[in-house]
Amino acid sequence: MAHADLVYPSREADGPGALYSLTVFSDCELTRARLAEDAAAAGLHVRQSYPLEHLLTGSVLSLGDIVILDCPEVRGDTIGVLLRVDARVAQAGSQMIVLTRMDALEDIYACMGQADAQILVDATRGERVLAVGRALTRNRGMRVRELSADDRVTLMRLTEQVEDIARRLEDFPRAGSDGIFRFESSRREFGPADGTQDGRLRAARPPLPDPRLVRKIIARRQKRRDYFDGALFADPAWDMLLDLTAARVEHRRVSVTSLCIASGVPATTALRWISQLVEAGLFERVEDEADRRRAFIGLTDAAADAMARYFAEIGGELG
């Protein structure tokens, strides 16, 4: 490819051939070409394809409906790029997909605090396509172009599958609702304060369990992988809840990389769970006051309360 900066011809926005628009940023020319090719094949109008430095020079005046940022490593000058694109994408209301590696995850996560980006770690081509599909389902305002009959059927089937995945995630009950993420008080928490039905006092929350006990439970769960396929027992939400519970009692901060490892699933999958659990009110993003480029994950007070009551209830059964 002769030119490093790919600019694709614009299309009539409201015409019969209207496309979703996409902007690609990567310092690797081959990666830019592959991402642009994949996106175009999926029916996206690739508006621009640039190196990362264009985000700092101000030469990129507008962004597409979806922004793909390829950043496999983070150098000193990359931090500014990440912070800038995060703010711009959030302001523009676009959807962002960030491609990176495990070694760069900490810096990437810390800089992506506004745009609600999908972060993919060592992503395969299939994972990239699914991420684009999720971005399409998130942005209901984007339009579908006219397709051939075969392309329409293929895209429809893919979209149905992606929307089903997205729907399952979006339908997770939020904090305070009935369902798997439930924080409301159990009936035993409240009781008559003066012997009447009207008086109510909240029972004192039991303490969180001894972290040594939690670590023992975690070790037992991980031991199963020595004898069985780990995928049989994948339960990332619970494994991360256990890890954060122990860390809270230990007064230890947990990095996003560490939590991904504790989840027992691939990092990209773990990051999607972390995003959902933050949205559900179980996890919270904790900025590092000493270094704004770092961020940690912790339990919310509501989640800590739920874990404390859970362990208090089953404590006698742990053996």
List the helices and strands and how they pair.
Blueprint: E1 6-7, E2 20-25, H1 29-41, E3 44-50, H2 54-57, E4 66-70, H3 78-92, E5 95-100, H4 105-111, E6 118-121, H5 125-138, H6 149-170, E7 190-191, E8 201-202, H7 211-223, H8 236-249, E9 254-255, H9 256-263, H10 267-280, E10 283-287, E11 295-299, H11 301-314
Parallel strand pairs: 2-3, 2-4, 4-5, 5-6
Antiparallel strand pairs: 1-3, 7-8, 9-11, 10-11
Task: Describe what you observe in this structure.
The chain is α/β, with parallel strands linked by helices and 319 residues long. It folds into two domains: 165 residues, Response regulator (Rossmann fold), CATH 3.40.50.2300; 112 residues, Winged helix-like DNA-binding domain superfamily/Winged helix DNA-binding domain (Arc Repressor Mutant, subunit A, Orthogonal Bundle). The protein has eleven helices and eleven strands. Strands 1-3-2-4-5-6 form a six-stranded mixed beta sheet, with helices on both faces. Strands 9-11-10 form a three-stranded antiparallel beta sheet.
Task: Pick out its properties.
319 residues; alpha/beta; Arc Repressor Mutant, subunit A; 2 domains; 6-stranded mixed sheet; 11 helices; 11 strands
Brief summary:
With 319 residues, the protein is of the alpha/beta class.
| Corresponding CATH superfamily of the largest domain | Response regulator
Listing every helix as H and every strand as E from the N terminus to the C terminus, the arrangement reads: EEHEHEHEHEHHEEHHEHHEEH
Structural class: alpha/beta
CATH topology of the largest domain: Rossmann fold
Would you identify the CATH architecture of the largest domain? 3-Layer(aba) Sandwich
Radius of gyration over C-alpha positions, nearest whole angstrom: 23 Å
